[in-house]
Amino acid sequence: MSRRAGGMGEVWFGWDTRLDRPIAIKFIRVDRLSDGKPDKELTDRFVRESRITARLEHPGVPTVYDCGTHGEELYLVMQLIEGCPVGFLIDETEIPVAWAAAIAAQVCSVLAVAHEKSLVHRDLKPGNLMLCPDGTVKVLDFGIAAATSPTATRLTSTGIVVGTPEYMAPEQAMSGSTGPQSDLYSLGVILDEMLAGDNQFCGPTPLATMHNHMGQEPEPLRQRRREVPEGLERLVLWLLAKTPDKRPSSAETVYARLLDFCRELPSFLGYVDVKAPHPVRMYAQVVGRIGTTPRSSGELAPVQRPAPAPDTFRHSDMALAKKDAHLLKAESRFTQAADVLAEAVEPAARALGAANPDVISLRIELADVLFLGGAYRRAATEFAGLAVDLAEREGHDNDLVLRFRLMEANSHAAAGETTIALTQLGRLLDDERRFKVDEDRTLELRRQIGLLELGAGDRVGARKTLSALLPDLKARYGQAHPNVTKVQEILDELNGDS
């Protein structure tokens, strides 16, 4: 086997002797705890995120064959991709405008599917994009950054923000906060670099580079490459907006804009074989015609199938579903666990009522496993329903009700729906204060709100929230507490920019 060093570990190129095919094996560097042992939480999260990523079915994402641990190393076995990294393209040649747009458009098609499944790449860069000889683009390392960073702050144990400084969105550089718009910002940096030939945000150090993303206004493309269309220049500037809410709303929006600039792709000798009859292009030509021709009057209408008969409910089904789900969860098979629980919840709720204590217990299992499996929008709906139904029986100040409300907001935040999450967290904080909830919980909620405001680009709101929080944190935990230190660092940065 041969190997290649990477940003988060090494990639080994080998051969699957069982199925007789070439493979790539990525070994991931693992942060160690203070006692020198590997971080088990990180290992568990890596397996979970790898399984979520493996469900991302898209021709622009390499197939994941396996994942696990080898000794104290994490590994991911993937489809081996032949092609040229976009980083090499930038170094070796001037990329035609149409091809730069085409590469970015294909990345958008991947992001559209990923973001719909609440997956954020978090480390898009030219080295993670591969242009293949048939002209297709593969997006590499999906889920790696998410898997190797803690879920709360997206920071490593050493305090380093996960990602690559040269392509990092301002909110990611400032607080480690990421969402779909963070990926779009990174794509904007890549597209700008593909067209101009250099990364305009690069500084002498990683810290200086991150400061440039946070404070340096981007230079318009046509000042560096005259033949770039004005509309493409405007799109890049839109992607490079400093705050997430000023960027395009979705990858689909960016994709639609990019199509105008890559409808006719020129020859790209040495990188794309335009003459050979590639099966992928043959396949795409047919698929691209779907929906373009209205159905003729003589075409048969879809067959209307009868609705399935209602399920027969047995009380023992709930216990069996929980048992099966627990076994699946123990193996991090969260999607299957959610399917098992959902299949039991629906008939149980119809037979016993959605607020029945046993049904509530089953619904809690379902909501939790949906969140663990990365199905954040479905999880938000389940947590919201639980909060409403339990509040009617136990009261709005019930600990579980408050927990469900928090998890609903966290689900929206994880799905990139920051505005909804902030609104819900603000209401929850008001109610927790009114109900005189434990101070540790309210302090953590205030910290979460401040970081989320910062990640959303609301620097004024974040400064106000965290400035009010800091003295209360010091009084409760002392000057040396990690949360005190981190909030102080963020405030120093915010105050330095004002």
TrEMBL record:
Domain Protein kinase residue range list: 1-259
UniProt keyword annotation of Repeat present: no
Keyword Transmembrane: no
Enzyme Commission identifier(s): 2.7.11.1
Enzyme class, broadest EC rank: transferase
Keyword entries, A-Z: ATP-binding, Kinase, Nucleotide-binding, Serine/threonine-protein kinase, Transferase
A GO molecular function held by the record: kinase activity
InterPro entries: Kinase-like_dom_sf (IPR011009), Prot_kinase_dom (IPR000719), Ser/Thr_kinase_AS (IPR008271), TPR-like_helical_dom_sf (IPR011990)
PANTHER family named in the record: MITOGEN-ACTIVATED PROTEIN KINASE KINASE KINASE 20-RELATED, SERINE_THREONINE-PROTEIN KINASE NEKL-3
Protein name, as recorded: non-specific serine/threonine protein kinase
